[in-house]
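[job 0412] stage=fold_complex status=start
inputs:
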Amino acid sequence: MRATDDRYRNERIRLELALRLIGHEARTGTIRYLTDLSDDRIRKLYASYFKHDASPVRRRRGKSPSQITPLVKTRELRLESSAVVALMASCGILDGERRPTRSAPHARLELGQRLCQTHETYLAMVAEPRLSFESLWNLYRNLVGGDELGSHRCRDCQSWYVFDALALAGDACPLCQT
Ligand SMILES: [Zn+2]
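[job 0412] stage=fold_complex status=done
writing structure:
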């Protein structure tokens, strides 16, 4: 019976994470990647739990955003992106050097749960949040797998911050910048 129990538990974790991600208005492709559920299962979950809510969540289709400009275009955005990266480190998906702590396929469920935890903490902290769940997902993917987004520690204030690694003048610390 142990194997059946484990399968049941695993399935429940997948469904719970998918519902949490739908609530965050994550895109179907993101939910599929993080939970390994099929598009059909995700569509049915959305239809049974969210479609007839008083304030329905939007179901987002299409590809997740991958451009880094919306994350670093202004000083305010760089401050918020940097704060989110610090939250990712405190939620255990990035280490102290802002490198990924988990990348194995079997750890996607845990990555998904910790990304939700990061976004929920961010929403609780910031009065007028500018970054959606998909922005966080984009930030994470660019930081761990791309070369356009840089992150380093300011020599003056010791804060970690993110910047556009391809922009010539884009790497000033948003906290020290006036
Ligand atoms: Zn600084």
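[job 0412] summary: Residues 2-49 form one domain.
[job 0412] exit 0
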